[in-house]
Design brief:
This protein has 194 residues and is of the alpha+beta class. It has 2 helices and 6 strands. Helix content is 52%, strand content 21%.
Length: 194
Amino acid sequence: MRIRVRGRRRRPNPLRRRSDVVEAWTKVVVALLLFVAAPALGAATAWWGYGQAQAIVAEQRAERHHVRATVVDRTPSALSTGQLGGQHSYRATVHWKAPDGTEKSTTARVPADTRHGDTVDVWLDAHGQSVPPPSDGAEIWQHSATIGSFTTIGTVLTVLLAHRAVRAVALRHRMAEWDRDWALTEPQWTHRRA
């Protein structure tokens, strides 16, 4: 009486070729790479991207300063609207008082519903030029998730392409082995001379 054991048999199979063994082990390696290595690499890259983005935001916060400015008028290019924090905006001349009490002005992008005399938040660089505000936490997380996702997708595609190449080579070797074996076996079956 035989007992069935789950899993593969340890006895050598005369029909199993070396290319079959290579292909079976390749499937195991591919599974490990797809389900362990690719997500781990994506997470590591996302973590690295998060650290880099935080360093850039810290640099931006050190270089830029925030002022409350009053909108004076729209500039001639006010018709060209853009995006400011997810809402439509236009360029306008704004005035503010510097810490030393002097009156300063610049052209800055302000929300589209802003009117003459409204007070807006403006970010300035060291030269007093209007610049975009530093990135916030949501943008940092979005940047990190994007980098991690693309790294994971790239790794998965690379692994799948490599697996396809290995399978093609294994199939070519298997066919060559079968041709060699058939060349030896055919004369015995058909009683023809090769």
